[in-house]
Amino acid sequence: EVQKLNQQLEEKNAEIEQMINQPPYEKEREILRLQKSLAEREKAQATSNVLCRSLTDETHQLQRKLASTAEMCQHLAKCLEEKQRKEKGNSDDQIATERSNQVFFSCYVLDNETPLQALICKLQDENRMLKQKVAHV
Length: 137
Known about the structure:
Blueprint: H1 2-21, H2 25-88, H3 93-105, H4 115-136
């Protein structure tokens, strides 16, 4: 009977050894879950990197467009001032500057708006929209 019990004990010890050497189901499941989570995070990171690069490129493009639009507006404002100075003469220089500022900063000009003034207003609106887009980005 003692021999029989010793043999059963050895069988149970062998079974326990086998179970210890074999990875548990829960550990395997956790490893798979972590691997899946890692893959999802890597995919999300890659997507995020692509979006960041895209937004950076768009930001640079909008900044260049904004700079060129602002330069164009300044040039047009100078041209308008020169034109008004020629028309009015040096005595009306202050009035011309005020009108230039009104045209430059307000697009709500009366019905007798010149094509140059309309162009300036259009560029100002575009400039304002670009500034909003840059601020948003």
